[in-house]
Amino acid sequence: MANEPDVDVAIIGGGISGIYAGWRLLASPLGSSQPAEWAQKRDGPIKVALFEGSDRIGGRLLSGRSPHMADTTAELGGMRYVAPAQKLVTALVERVLRLPFHEQVVAVDANIAFLRGRLLRSRDLASPAPLPFWFSPEEAAWLAARTGPDQTPSALIQRVLTRLMPDVLARLQAGTLREYLASVQVGGLPLWRHGFWNLLAEGMSPDGYVAARTTIGYDCLGGNSNALDLTAAFFDFVPGVSYRMVNDGYEAVPWQLQQRFQQAGGEVRFGTWLEGFGAHGLADGPQGVRLRFRDGSDVTARAVILAMPRRSIELLRPEGEVLGPSNMAFRQALASVTAIPLFKLFLLYPQCWWQQAGVTKGRSLTDMPLRQCYYWPSGPDGTGVPKPSEPGLLMAYDDLLNVSFWSGLDTRREVQKASRHPGATHHHHHWPLFPRSPAPEATAPGDEYAALLQRNWTGHTATAPMVREMHRQLMLMHGVDTAPEPIDAAYMDWGRDPYGGGVHLWNPNFFSDEMMPRMTQPLDGFPCYLCGEAYSTNQTWVEGALQTAEIVLQKRLGLPALELP
Ligand SMILES: Cc1cc2nc3c(=O)[nH]c(=O)nc-3n(C[C@H](O)[C@H](O)[C@H](O)COP(=O)(O)OP(=O)(O)OC[C@H]3O[C@@H](n4cnc5c(N)ncnc54)[C@H](O)[C@@H]3O)c2cc1C
Q1: Structure confidence at residue 429 (pLDDT)
Q2: Which residue has a Cα nearest atom 35 of ligand 1?
Q3: Distance 52 CA to ligand 1 centre (A)
Q4: Which residues line ligand 1 (CB under 6 A)?
Q5: Residues 505-542: tens digit of each pLDDT
Q6: Angle at the Cα of 259 (from 42 to 537), degrees rounded to 5?
Q7: Does domain 7-55+270-338+504-556 have CATH number 3.40.50.300?
Q8: Residue 20 Cα: closest atom of ligand 1
């Protein structure tokens, strides 16, 4: 037909939500959906194109392999899922893609808790006496008397939540926690009207709060985000939750979906940054969309799916029906979530010197900016423990203010915010990059995916001061004076553009159960849809990215639910 749009669906953003939506549109039955009508008009399959600004699919799933340990997969972005609770991602990994997975080890009694300059072990966290915190007498008595799985001061948070909402643990057990949290009132107001920290502060001593937040590992889990959503998120990170990881790296999930999407006729265009978009009249009646890219090219479509987080949307031009001033309601709604900076740095050592301190696997903690230290498992199935004399990887992982500590050691222009004037490089100097040791010969990557993972690693070289400082903090927390220097290092600061943060959390006073569906269509009647982790009720997880993609597919476009094998 003359004047057909270039594509039926344009997807912007090749993170997990974008590539998943593309795969679903081309590989699932269309039923009596809108895309089914578009297929009829074309008298053939619909045309779906995915536009990704960077040169890879995966977004915040970023797996990497150092040439020095080519059989071991590091995770610079998302790393694990909660099975079977996270239904969409568990089904996708284990039943659709059938990727090999393993359980992740986190809590180990012999691991370290280096707090306020004191080297303790995880098991010491079970009683308040040796801990360098000023608990109230009543908190100390409760901590000393308690039994049960959570033997760290972070249980104080759970204690306050249980007092305010007596059914919280029973409903968690029953798998109906969210429904309960959405209905419960605290102080005469719905839970979502409260800030999480505000609620905790009333029921904890100041230092009890610090102890709890410190020992949970993530500062954002004690923050002042929406109390409904953060209570739900908190219980994803308490001791006893079991996590699974994909053996080949979490990026294998978007990679596999990309292969299937392209095999089904989907088109992926890399290096294409969307700049802005607006309405475009279609010859056959309904309103379509004209997309404008930074390289000056134009694409018309029947519908556009923005599969990207808050900051990426805010970097688009504030023009057109959806993003322009006539739709202020949407611009304000964008601010209903806050992006949480996250930082990961992997150091590769020629020997596992930390094993002298009695630690081999799982996670250690500290209140220094490195916050969480994972003794990264080695080998292709992700469960190996290297011998002390063998090379090994440590992963440091932190959030919020700690991220600014590390980004201060990284002033390269390309990692700065877009708001910085591009010509202003002479105002700041560049830190030298960490001098990675030359790669051994024998580790040439075997296939395209392996080559991608090596590129991901080498493309995220840390700076020399960042590595030096991390090495110092690691020695300090393990109580050693000397250790071999790292030979390789890779990092990612997710606060940088176009992400603006690693994960998102709802702000107080927004009811996410109502906001989430609303955000999937920013303007009534206009064929622009939005999905991704940022505006979901499973924030901080891939599950949230898939959840909102399914809302767009099923509720907005009318596709049938995913059929599982
Ligand atoms: C350090 C870290 C740890 C995490 N840990 C876990 C975990 O263990 N388990 C878990 O389930 N989740 C975890 N997450 C969260 C998980 O990674 C995300 O929820 C998920 O990957 C987000 O997918 P998305 O599709 O919503 O967006 P993204 O992955 O952010 O994808 C957005 C894409 O859009 C592209 N883009 C942006 N702007 C434009 C434009 N203008 N034009 C074209 N393309 C554009 C970007 O380049 C990117 O590829 C973690 C995240 C981080 C950062």
Answers
A1: 54
A2: 13
A3: 12
A4: 12-18, 51-54, 59-61, 77-81, 273-274, 307-309, 312, 342, 344, 494, 498-499, 502-503, 532-533, 540-542, 544-545
A5: 999 999 999 999 999 999 999 999 999 999 999 999 99
A6: 85
A7: no
A8: 25
